Write the structure tokens for this entry.
Amino acid sequence: MSTRLGIAALALLATTTVAAVEANAAKIRVACYSDGNECEATEELSARFMKDNPDIEVVIDKMPYKSILESLPVQLAAGNGPDVARVTIAGPIMKYFLDLTPYLKDPGYWETNFGAMLPWLRPNATDKGIYGLPTQMTVTAPIVNKTLFEQAGMPLPGPEATWDDWVTAVAKVAKATNTPFGMAWDRSGHRFAGAAISMGAKYFDANGDPAVIDDGFKAMASRFVRWNEDGVVEKDVWAAAGSGYRDAFEEFANAKIALYLSGSWQLTRLQKQISDGFDWVVVPNPCGPASCTGMPGGASFVAFKQTTSPKEVARWLQWLASEPVYAEWMAMTSNISGHAALQKGGVKYKLTPAGNAAIAAFSLNASKISPVAYRLQGYPLSGALFNPVVDRLSQAINGQITLDQAYQRITSDVADAIAAAAKK
């Protein structure tokens, strides 16, 4: 055999061997939704992971957030779900979660750096399992079109301003600038909850049982319905046909509103889509008599029991969780770190001046979150509390039921949802 033929034969053998390894690689399917570019960033990082781990193939299946909420539970119940999914509400699918602890090299690292968020993925306070990797820490807060305020000659309300103060201000701005509406809130029980808690809503009674309707909740609900009826709030966001989640980002990006209640996950979209169209700022959460709070949150990659590759899933997730990779991930996605050590300044963001100011403002809002909000976010059946609020307040906004009827139906809906969950 000539030298040239020998080299060619060796090259062919090497190629065949690599192909064989790749053909036999454990395939990890990841159901992923993006607020900005989370799926794309994860895909880019995973390509690097696969280069160093040719026995694992990571496939990122991108889908809308609504599909995660509505289709994923059905797929898991049928036994044909993904190996991993990016989720925000854990309760309805918790029973399918895989405890990664036995497969992790250093579970203590996860407890040290992600311990504040890991309980959100656990069914109860006594459970110590590690069921997923937080992909971000989020906080809700208002995002304001500063340009509209400047055009109206209106100063931004101060850090102690109430919701009533802000509504008065945005109504004046909308009128002075011929802007269609003063503000809009994402159609989400989670988004509503921060404002309600500021007004004194507790969501739980003294025994720790769900009790959504109280004077604090009513104080915000009555205001919100009235603001929709008065046209201060863009009514179509909550009152449009259909049900479930809907954000109001496009309305804000198109300068149709002066204030948008959403959260830190919108940062990538804010920078890319608005660019220099107008000046925008993140402001402190408006105050009520109880607090000035938003809601904490964050998505996580959770693993499922039905995976046939638990060791490989754990290896991929612990690589993403490693401090240098996680820091890069947060910088790529412009997210607040869910990693405790990196929250102290270890992420080198590549943001616009507005983006840097927004990260700082969101972080300041995170430091003022009410304990009630943390408790609500960590409740395993939080969706059973959030969803009826959206459905029934939307009906009240549309004039289909009264507010008193909405309160009654929210209470019965929550009880039914919790009872149904107990039977599963």
Observations:
- The domain at 26-137+298-349 is CATH 3.40.190.10 (D-Maltodextrin-Binding Protein; domain 2).
- Residues 141 and 387 are 20 Å apart (CA to CA).
